[in-house]
């Protein structure tokens, strides 16, 4: 059949980029993610007949599916180029069945990066749909559906409506709740330190030495009397250097990013939540128009991966580029070993071309895209560079029987640190060097003091440390970390305080119910074993139905017992200071899938509800009401009048408090992002100033 070929991808952005590469012989269309899925209103899994799922066309996707069918019917060939992972494979399988394409035919196209070379090469090598990948996704989907739809109604009945349980989300919530219990049950222990400030008589330079122990053996000081006795005795002794050890210390670069490490570093360095990191990375992967000869191009490789593999041509390009940019002494080609149980289908996350430097394309990117691309680019570049080298000195100094130690280091050769320094969850000491000390030399005591300390409880989880914990325990996969954290926050199990994830009373109560009644579901080891079985399905080692057959009977029995055993729990709603204007009661905070709102506790007699009002303290230029902080349907912040919809004032930029336009006296707005500025809201006034 003559005619164009049809290529179906997931997103319009990706479709636009690829259409430019393939030209007029191809029509590139987007499926907008899943078109066919399980219905939301029912379990839709036949547990009696091999867990057969009942799929439907997603509501609102019918017209799009009709368009795809129409285009497919007149195309000479149809290629399915959804994302190169389990989820993408399943979307392609659903599309193949809906469009009457044989899944065993060569209809599937995958590429790890969206560049002209990669896309054209992939089109030449289509393959059949990988049913092992499809079945792994199907098993996960069915398993998660059974757990969620069977346990959630029990939580609704016994605790409150709107709660949900999930195979990964319930374990993540448990980790956060268990950490909170550790913090609450933590008993601080007292300990003391002694620090001496010493001077080298030759150079007159001072340095710090810390008490280590007695006669070279380490000793912990547990009370003030002990510290005071050592302090008094040390003052009466000479501080003599007993040994000096100088050495070179190497610090190796970290490997390029995986999904997990990218989310962790973006959290630490950019203050990005996991969901924001993945959304921004998706846009970099799908393509950005750089203009000129380059045009539209995907800037990074596929961002859902736990592999550290790097393609040979990318390694070669990186080495050549870095030699030119930094000199050959800075370059060290490296290959990194992917951890056990990782999926090695994709490369590590890297720039599609190291030659596209972040600062060269800054004006083509949003602020978030620039920050994240720069992080990915720098981490990859550093991974192919020489180690940093430090001069280190460790000195042991005796004051009678008391042993003190001093340490210093200085950066001798930057190596990879010329490009990138790893983020850390703990503070690192800054470089400091000791004066040139010699064995047996005397030093002069300038000052000596003791300090009391108490051991600290473990820190609460942040996005970064929770993702690290989930990955280390084999819970979830790269694609699940961000949505898991978003879900437990939106459900009200966890709240954010700056970077900390803190469990709510609802989260603690729900976790207790899960621990006492669904032990396996919130057991870290059990969940990790289940992930391993899903990986076995993907590798063709296990049948997906057999995994469900093994899981379901004990789970069903557990459900019946739990339903009888769990007693009804009443969680008191948090009271606000807002008075219900209809009945005079103090309104309480409630949670819906759209976030928090105020409701009258007199329900059902009084059904009054209100959105939570966040004022700006700035008057509306149209009617004099207060401008409020509001959220659009898609969750984007904007600013609108309290008298909306009667007053139609609206702005995307924040109003400036306590300042008027110096030219016309009008409202000033503050624009953030790349072009930070203060400007006048009045379109007839051109006042603005840069920040």
What does this structure look like?
- The strands form nine sheets. This protein has a six-stranded antiparallel barrel.
- The mean pLDDT is 90.
- α8 runs antiparallel to α12.
- The chain is an alpha+beta fold and 691 residues long.
- The chain is built from 16 helices and 30 strands.
- The longest helix is centred in the first third of the chain and has 28 residues, at 131-158.
- InterPro entries: Topo_IA, Topo_IA_2, Topo_IA_cen, Topo_IA_cen_sub1, Topo_IA_cen_sub2, Topo_IA_cen_sub3, Topo_IA_core_domain, Topo_IA_DNA-bd_dom.
Distance N to C terminus = 61 Å
**Average predicted local confidence, pLDDT:** 90
Structural class call reads: alpha+beta
Q: Which percent range fits the helix content?
A: 25-40%
State the total count of DSSP E strands. Answer: 30
Largest sheet: 6 strands, antiparallel, barrel
Strand content: 15-25%
DSSP helical segment count: 16
User: Which parts are unreliable, with pLDDT below 50 for 5 consecutive residues or more?
Assistant: none
Multimeric state: single chain
Keywords: DNA-binding, Isomerase, Magnesium, Metal-binding, Topoisomerase, Zinc, Zinc-finger
Family: Belongs to the type IA topoisomerase family.
Catalytic activity: ATP-independent breakage of single-stranded DNA, followed by passage and rejoining
EC number: 5.6.2.1
